[in-house]
Design a protein that fits this description.
This protein has 8 helices and 8 strands. It has 216 residues and is α/β, with parallel strands linked by helices. Strand 2, helix 2 and strand 3 form a beta-alpha-beta unit. It starts with a strand and ends with a helix.
Length: 216
């Protein structure tokens, strides 16, 4: 089995202790940090901009992924690359020029990822798969943290793995020790975890350990 990466999402972090919590995640063995960027249009929530990525960059040496849940993400790529994002994800539903957007991310020196919503068919990914470093299968409807994992997501991950044996498959939404077992069994290799890490009753390190222990 390939190494399973755990990527804490700061959407569930304590904003007043952001740098401290990011450092805790790094010390606990997180593989990178996710910054969820929401514009209040593509999703009904408004969250972080490039300045927050800069703040996270100052707090950690880990790679940072910026997940752009925004309309016309191509307008924001340069700002997030400059702020320190090492992987930029865009939603397949958010742009009419997906190939051009993916190429623009790579030209900026970042890795390129695409995310797909629960109701979007995998067929919408087929032509872009050869050009991306990662596919994020959303396992909740994007927009808010703390949602429950959608059980049918496991089948979607499995079908994507059959479609592309080598692509990195990330899952995002409702991931905890229990759902992690299901999605990894289906072929996921990257787990985004928000409330199950930053909201874990035993602390950030204990939250990451709970997921790793479940996968052993």
């Amino acid at each position: 089995m390939p190494r399973i990466e755990i990527v804490p999402s700061i959407l569930s972090a304590d904003a007043g202790r952001l740098a401290e919590q990011v450092k805790e995640a790094e010390s606990a063995g997180a593989d990178r940090i996710q910054v969820d960027v929401m514009d209040g249009h593509f999703v009904p929530n408004l969250t972080f901009g490039p300045g927050v990525v800069e703040a996270v960059r100052r707090a950690t040496s880990l790679p940072i992924e910026a997940h752009l849940m925004v309309e016309r993400p191509e307008l924001f790529l340069e700002a997030f690359a400059r702020s320190g994002a090492t992987l930029i994800e865009v939603q397949v539903e958010a742009t009419s020029s997906l190939y051009r957007t993916v190429q623009a991310i790579k030209e900026l020196g970042a890795k390129a990822g695409v995310a797909i919503n629960p109701a979007t068919p995998l067929e919408d990914l087929r032509e872009i798969l050869p050009y991306v470093d990662l596919v994020n299968v959303m396992t909740v409807e994007p927009g808010f943290g703390g949602q429950k994992f959608i059980p049918s997501s496991t089948d979607k991950v499995q079908r994507l793995r059959a479609l592309s044996p080598k692509v990195e498959i990330e899952v995002d939404g409702g991931i905890d020790a229990r759902s992690a077992i299901l999605v990894v069994g289906a072929g996921a290799t990257v787990l985004v975890a928000g409330s199950s890490v930053f909201g874990y009753k035993g602390g950030v390190a204990a939250g990451i350990k709970a997921i790793r222990d479940a996968l052993e």
